């Protein structure tokens, strides 16, 4: 059914990316699965989110653990003739995923990148991912999406400049072809839907191209501007030495603020260069060009000595970070789209 219908429907619609899903309920299947369970009882343990214990991976594991002799005893060759026919539960007609990429700016200091849920309770009313996805889902008339980006910023950090590359898998789109003008229109709809975010370079990409975003992510550089507070009063000439520091290697223990979800480790990250702009005796702007993955906040306040060296040590006074902006994410994907 699948092979016959899929081709006919695809031809009729002029779109070969239509796929059918046929969950088939078969008495025959259940019987063989019972034998599988006898074969390797340990292989079929119930897990949280799986409907059936007979997953593809579990069956493969069971087959690997079973000797040929034992297998032949349970499954005679030729197989026993089925006594009842298969019954079809359901047919689903789906479109393969379409992938969309672009870059986003975030102008708001109270917007998380993804929905922020603590103990089942929603913390902020929106998120970057939802603001971008809503107009896209409605244009593609899709069932859902999967969002990924080149790194992420904290809820209170803005992303300026050319923005942060992102990609979205659009699940089961009912409209899948968009020309350049339509994509531009969609981009404008997203831009106008909220003053918290903007997108550029919005385009349809291939599934393969998406992996380019994650490639060599660690080696990429990122630029930031931080507003710094100093405990001791400073003069403009007290901070200029920072401009001469190049390729500063930091040892960063996993920050206390993320320790609940990341393993404890010491990571080395490099600050390629810094520049300062004096503001007043307790404040200055610090520009940083760093290796991706550097914890900027921890470099500034030191995280109780867990980041070494840190700005407190360099300036010999307590320092803290009041505001942080991402100025650029130097990943050359997706390709820029000329306006
Ligand atoms: C979302 O992407 C992840 C990683 O690529 C994948 O494992 C997951 O199945 C995707 N989710 C959906 C709903 O397609
Ligand atoms: C959307 O906003 C971005 C960032 O400001 C801008 O570069 C782009 O031209 C805008 N696109 C449209 C179609 O409004």
> Whole-Å distance between the termini?
47 Å
Shape: extended
CATH class of the largest domain: Alpha Beta
Task: Kindly report the CATH topology of the largest domain.
Answer: Alpha-Beta Plaits
Element order: H for helix, E for strand: HEEHHHEEEEEHEEHEHEHEEEHEHE
Descriptive keywords:
32% strand; RNA binding; isomerase; Pus10_N_euk; 3 domains; tRNA processing; ten-stranded mixed β-sheet; EC 5.4.99.25; 339 residues; binds 2-acetamido-2-deoxy-beta-D-glucopyranose; alpha+beta; Alpha-Beta Plaits; two-stranded antiparallel ribbon
Describe it.
By secondary structure, the protein is an alpha+beta fold. The chain folds into 3 domains: 23-90, no CATH class; 95-213, 2-Layer Sandwich (Alpha-Beta Plaits); 218-329, 2-Layer Sandwich (Alpha-Beta Plaits), CATH 3.30.70.3190. Helix content is 27%, strand content 32%. The strands form 4 sheets. Strands 5, 8, 9, 10, 11, 12, 13, 14, 15 and 16 form a 10-stranded mixed β-sheet that branches. Strands 1-4 form a two-stranded antiparallel sheet. A hairpin with a 2-residue loop joins strand 13 and strand 14. The relative contact order is 0.13. One 2-acetamido-2-deoxy-beta-D-glucopyranose (NAG) binds at residues 146, 169, 171.
In brief, what are we looking at here?
The chain has 339 residues and is an alpha+beta fold.
How do the helices and strands line up, and which of them pair or pack?
Elements: H1 2-13, E1 18-21, E2 24-25, H2 27-39, H3 56-65, H4 68-74, E3 87-88, E4 92-95, E5 98-106, E6 117-118, E7 121-122, H5 128-140, E8 144-149, E9 158-171, H6 180-193, E10 197-205, H7 207-214, E11 221-230, H8 236-239, E12 246-253, E13 266-280, E14 283-291, H9 296-301, E15 307-308, H10 311-315, E16 319-329
Parallel strand pairs: 9-16
Antiparallel strand pairs: 1-4, 2-3, 5-9, 5-10, 6-7, 8-9, 11-14, 11-16, 12-13, 12-15, 13-14
Helix pairs in contact: 2-3, 5-6
The protein binds 2-acetamido-2-deoxy-beta-D-glucopyranose (2 copies).
The site of one 2-acetamido-2-deoxy-beta-D-glucopyranose has 3 residues, from strand 9.
């Amino acid at each position: 059914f699948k092979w016959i219908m899929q081709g006919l429907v695809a031809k009729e619609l002029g779109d070969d990316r239509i796929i059918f899903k046929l969950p088939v309920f078969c008495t025959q299947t259940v019987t063989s699965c019972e034998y599988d369970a006898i074969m390797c009882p340990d292989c079929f343990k119930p897990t949280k989110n799986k409907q059936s214990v007979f997953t593809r991976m579990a069956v493969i594991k069971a087959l690997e653990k079973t000797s040929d002799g034992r297998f032949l005893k349970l499954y005679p060759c030729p197989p026993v003739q089925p006594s009842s026919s298969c019954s079809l539960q359901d047919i689903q007609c789906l479109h393969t995923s379409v992938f969309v990429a672009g870059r986003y700016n975030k102008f708001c200091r109270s917007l998380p990148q993804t929905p922020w849920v603590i103990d089942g309770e929603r913390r902020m009313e929106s998120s970057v991912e939802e603001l971008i996805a809503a107009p896209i889902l409605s244009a593609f008339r899709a069932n859902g999406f999967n969002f990924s980006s080149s790194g992420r910023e904290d809820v209170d950090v803005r992303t300026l400049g050319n923005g942060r590359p992102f990609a979205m898998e659009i699940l089961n789109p009912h409209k899948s072809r968009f020309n350049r003008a339509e994509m531009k229109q969609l981009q404008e709809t997203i831009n106008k839907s909220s003053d918290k975010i903007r997108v550029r370079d919005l385009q349809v990409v291939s599934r393969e191209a998406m992996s380019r975003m994650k490639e060599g992510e660690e080696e990429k550089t990122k630029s930031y501007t931080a507003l710094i507070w100093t405990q001791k009063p400073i003069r403009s000439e007290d901070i200029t030495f920072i401009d001469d520091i190049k390729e500063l290697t930091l040892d960063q223990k996993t920050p206390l603020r993320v320790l609940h979800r990341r393993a404890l480790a010491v990571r080395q990250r490099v600050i390629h260069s810094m520049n300062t702009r004096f503001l007043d005796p307790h404040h200055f702007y610090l520009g940083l060009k760093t290796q991706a993955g550097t914890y900027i906040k921890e470099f500034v306040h030191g995280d109780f000595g867990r980041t070494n060296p840190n700005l407190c040590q360099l300036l010999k006074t307590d320092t803290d970070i009041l505001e942080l902006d991402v100025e650029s994410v130097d990943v050359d994907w997706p390709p820029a789209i000329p306006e």
